[in-house]
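Treating backbone geometry as a discrete language has practical consequences that deserve illustration. Part of our work consisted of pairing the sequence of a single chain with a tokenised description of its backbone. What the numbers capture is local backbone geometry rather than side-chain detail. For completeness, the protein is quoted in full, as a sequence line and a line of structure tokens:
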Amino acid sequence: MSYELKLHRDVEKQLERIPKKQRERLVDTMRSLCQDPRPIGCIKIEDRLYRVRQSQYRIIYAIFDEEVVVFICKVVRRTESTYRDLQKMLDRAIRYVIEE
């Protein structure tokens, strides 16, 4: 079963700031989440939130099994603020997926 991939509107802006070679790898990783939303190495960080590591970057995403959707919340280099506001990210993802 293939999941639908949806991006938060800020993710495109975040990707534009990343060097091209790394951006391509991140996009490939995000696309692979459609086939396997819980790949080896992914970490569950909240209720529906997961993160997957791609070198020094983190892809934070929510999985909605009932709607068959993977929602990318954030793509960012790992810093102290990477995991701040997780509940806010999850709330936005729920509003976007459920209300759509």
